[in-house]
Amino acid sequence: MRIKTLKAKIIKNSRNENTIQITINKKFKASVPSGASTGTHEVKAYKKTAKYAVDYLNKHHDHWKNKSFDEFYDLETFENLNLGGNPILALQLTTLKAMSNNKIYKYLNPKSKILPTPLGNVIGGGSHTKLKSSDIQEFLLIPKAKTFKERYLANKHAYKEIKKKLNTKKLTDEGAFIPNISTTETLDFLNNYLQDKVLGIKINLGLDIAASEFYKNKTYNYKNFSKSNKTNKLKKQEQINLVNSWISDYNLKYVEDPLEQEDFRGFSKLDQRALICGDDLITTNIKRLKSAMQQKSINSIIIKPNQIGSLIKTKEIVDFAHSHNIKTIISHRSGETLDSSISHLAVAWKIPYIKTGIFGKERESKLKELLKIENEIKA
Ligand code: PGA
Ligand code: ZN
After folding, report:
1. What are the pocket residues of ligand 1 if the criterion is a CB atom closer than 6 Å to any ligand atom?
2. Are residues 167 and 124 in the same domain?
3. Which of 30, 37, 281, 345 has the highest Cβ tally under 10 A?
4. pLDDT higher than 90, residue 130
5. Do 194 and 78 belong to one domain?
6. Of the bound ligands, which one is closest to the alpha carbon of residue 255?
7. Residue of 261, 331, 334 with the most ligand 1 atoms within 8 Å of its CB, for mutation
8. Are residues 94 and 146 in the same domain?
9. 85 near 53, Cβ under 8 Å?
């Protein structure tokens, strides 16, 4: 593939923030998301601003004109650009789309056959809303079914039923409900709802606690803990005990960031019958994954390509994790665009889980792309 034209422009993400979109050869487009509960160790999304990156790329587009891209590792070309993680990633994804004629998954892995399980964000709070909400950032639905389509439909149906039961229209940045109930009441409510199968499918519960967001002065500060006990301040060991009791009582299959982002040792004390997942703890950074593995902190990691600002490094950490029996979960960000590249990467790199919302066009674009890929693979 040869680059004939390269254009950058500003678009708005789902939170109405500026982000970058690249177009190559007039036909291939990619854009990148931004986080709200970003980890301290993430690369900066923009060295200056999205606007600065867009202007720079439009001024220097000649630099890439007539360059040809023949294989995945040619994308390394973009990595010495000093514009921040998001511009690099947008350039790499657009180029990959152009190289593959928009079929990234097939181009990277012609034999790919496995579709990920969606972790669907159904109720939420924390830093994903300004409204009074649960202390936990995301309550996630994990359906167990053979095909992606069945998993997708089960989550969608559960979302609609939960909406009726909660009778609320308030939504977080990721399209999850914000009911006016406490953290423990939310756990009880969902646990109760999920006792019955949905469309004949068992759905398990998972959480993204995003604990760094409410960790201050060595305590986990709950503001909306339970009906009788609104505020609750927990020391590290109390937080570990609480999360372990939730894992048993609610049969949690997945717990992301149950402790603050520097506590590698604390993570190792959590009940690994559930997937104990590092997001802010690892920030898609292989060095941090290696530290975590030495201390047996986790058995799974979140993969967010823009946390590390490089598609090459993202592939490296995915391969490393898989060869060391660490499960991977590729994830959207709270401020999303319509881009569905992560769906393709999940299939290409055999990533077993994808975390997205269930509702909202930016979330559904990822899910619908996977439905399309499943159909293509089956055909
Ligand atoms: P973010 O949150 O995209 O706002 O960082 C998502 C997450 O914590 O998983
Ligand atoms: Zn997270």
Report:
1. 35-38, 137, 208, 210, 279, 331, 333-334
2. yes
3. 281
4. no
5. no
6. 2
7. 334
8. no
9. no
